[in-house]
Amino acid sequence: MFKAIYLTKNDDGGTVAEVKDLTEAELPEIEGAVTVAVDYSTINFKDGLAITGKSPVVRKFPMVPGIDFAGIVHATNHPKWKIGDEVILNGWGVGESHWGGLSQYARVSGDWLISKPTSLSSKECMSIGTAGYTAMLCVLALERSGVTPQHGEILVTGASGGVGSFAISILSGLGYQVVASTGKKNEHEFLVSLGAKEIMDREIFSTPGKPLQKERWAGVVDTVGSNTLANACASTKYGGVVTACGLAGGMDLPLTVAPFILRGVSLIGIDSVMASKDVREKAWNRLAKDLKPSVISEIAKVVNLQEAIEIGGDILKGVIRGRVVVDVNG
Ligand code: NDP
After folding, report:
1. Which position among 81, 106, 279, 289 has the lowest Cβ density within 10 Å, counted as fewest Cβ atoms?
2. DSSP H helical segments within the chain, as ranges?
3. Which residue, by CA, sits nearest to atom 24 of ligand 1?
């Protein structure tokens, strides 16, 4: 028997989340299956949506949520993996359409796993988690587009959240001037400690603005969407690059084409879920190289499976600072 967060639907169509004892025989079958003894998982925004049922991210019930995990191969039908290998997983619909990592054991396709970077512990990998990995995908996109520290300031929105915190830390470590937009007055000190050189109130971005505004940003990491992303595009400098990865403020995008056709601004979409193995390995290798261990532990706090259910609701309210790591054996 092992423990997992187990999601079911009640008679009213609401989602019920509980910590339940399961057996290995109940884990889903899949081609090239690898069963992983999970060390750590995390609570991401999407896990909050799954646990609370606030948005239909879960494709079938019952479901074990958890879009990422780190652990050790316990059994394998996949040629690449052997028992004892240390692995990590992000995305691939795990925790949405396939049972996920908020569990002491997970059975997934071996094609979805990558090796854990040797210089990071399982706990550090999940402290970084999908948020840090997504932040790195944004940074890699800015670099690929030729945005260097010499080009000017980078705006990071949703700054105190998981993706935002890691984006600030990575970018400032690489020498970029980072401006952080946050709704949390009590987290200014934290954001400065991560490397933000200026803090802006998120209200400035979340109310509707003009199609073209004063040019300021060489690059943007946006985790918020909606008016925030529209205003960020409208205030990006000529030739600047905006990376869009999130929707914490809304799914809509009330934007005009003006920033693109008059200023040559690029808007780049970032997806962590179906990114290729090469992209994942590149991002994780850079995370292992570019992040300081002290920053990783500063950004993360650890909870157990039972506590994770409550945190699932809190993350949607935007009240969590940094990352929540789940010790599934805690
Ligand atoms: P968090 O909940 O940790 O952070 C989101 C932050 O956004 C909050 O901390 C808050 O920061 C800000 N925020 C919350 N609500 C609002 C609002 N109504 N208006 C404006 N800002 C708000 O989430 P993550 O950092 O883990 O994820 C951020 C976004 O990125 C989510 O939408 C998530 O779904 C998405 N995501 C996408 C991925 C992809 O593959 N594209 C992968 C991972 C995440 P503050 O108080 O500092 O303003």
Report:
1. 289
2. 45-52, 122-144, 162-173, 188-194, 203-206, 226-234, 258-263, 277-290, 293-299, 305-316
3. 162
Q: How far apart are CA 156 and CA 167, in angstroms?
A: 7
163 in contact with ligand 1, CB cutoff 6 A: yes
| Spatial distance between the Cα atoms of 103 and 42, rounded to a whole number of angstroms | 11
Ligand 1, atom nearest to 49 Cα: 34
Please choose from 96, 163, 279, 326 the residue to mutate so as to test ligand 1's pocket, defined by most ligand atoms within 8 A of CB: 163
Cis bond upstream, residue 211 (ω within 30): no
Residues 87, 108, single domain; the answer is: yes
Q: How far apart are CA 107 and CA 74, in angstroms?
A: 10
pLDDT digits (tens, 9 = 90+) for 41-76: 999 999 999 999 998 999 999 999 999 999 999 999
How far, rounded to the nearest angstrom, does the alpha carbon of residue 187 sit from its chain's CA centroid?
19
AA identity, residue 156: V
- Residue 7 and residue 112 in one domain: yes
What is the position in ligand 1's atom list of the atom closest to the CA of 315?
2
- Residue 278 domain flag: no
Query: Distance between CA 114 and CA 264 in Å, rounded?
Result: 37
pLDDT digits (tens, 9 = 90+) for 278-289: 999 999 999 999
- pLDDT of res. 187: 94
Number of H helices, E strands in the chain: 10, 15
Model confidence, pTM: 0.94
**Cα gap 21→23, rounded to integer Å:** 7
Residue 90 Cβ < 6 Å to ligand 1 = no
Residue 77 structural domain: 2-116+293-327
